[in-house]
Amino acid sequence: MPRKPKRPCSWPGCPNLTEGRFCEEHQKEENRCYEKYGRDPAVRRRYGRAWKRIRDKYASEHPLCEQCLKEGRYVKTEEIHHKLPLSQGGTHERSNLIALCRSCHAKIHAENGDRWHNR
């Protein structure tokens, strides 16, 4: 199937063509702005350096998506997910974590209505 034609970057004054909303350079800038201004500050407190260490250790011990593995598919782990979210009283305990691929992670959040604040 043919690809869509590239369109101009949405960053004001940027002449670069892109397949997404922003070109690579401005996507990084947009992400930085979101982290600084758009994201809830409480999230930064919950997901600090300690979480990164816990996440990396769990991912190294579980290199395959646990959901896909149950279905007999071998897909690389890309996300570590909290079964009970931290915002609902969950912790970083190993029993509350599950290794997932991106599609399984997105599917779980979509089913819970967590994405785009659709509650």
Please summarize what this structure is.
The protein is mainly alpha-helical and 119 residues long.
Overview of the molecule:
The chain starts with 6 loop residues before the first strand and ends in a 7-residue tail after the last helix. The model has no long low-confidence stretch (mean pLDDT 87). 42% of the residues lie in helices and 10% in strands. By secondary structure, the protein is mostly helical.
Shape descriptor reads globular
Strand arrangement across the biggest beta sheet: 1-2
Largest sheet descriptor? 2 strands, antiparallel
Query: Ranges with pLDDT <50 over ≥5 residues?
Result: none
Count of discrete alpha- or pi-helical segments spanning 4 or more residues: 5
Strand content: 5-15%
Determine the N-to-C terminus distance.
Answer: 36 Å
Number of strands: 4
Structural class: mainly alpha
* SSE succession: EEHHHHEEH
Determine Rg (CA atoms, Å).
18 Å
Task: Estimate the mean pLDDT confidence.
Answer: 87
Instruction: Please state the oligomeric state of the protein chains shown.
Output: single chain
- Binned, the helix content reads 40-55%
Ordered list of secondary-structure elements with their pairings:
Elements: E1 7-8, E2 17-18, H1 24-38, H2 41-46, H3 49-61, H4 66-70, E3 79-82, E4 97-100, H5 102-112
Antiparallel strand pairs: 1-2, 3-4
Main attributes of the structure:
single chain, mainly alpha, two-stranded antiparallel sheet, globular
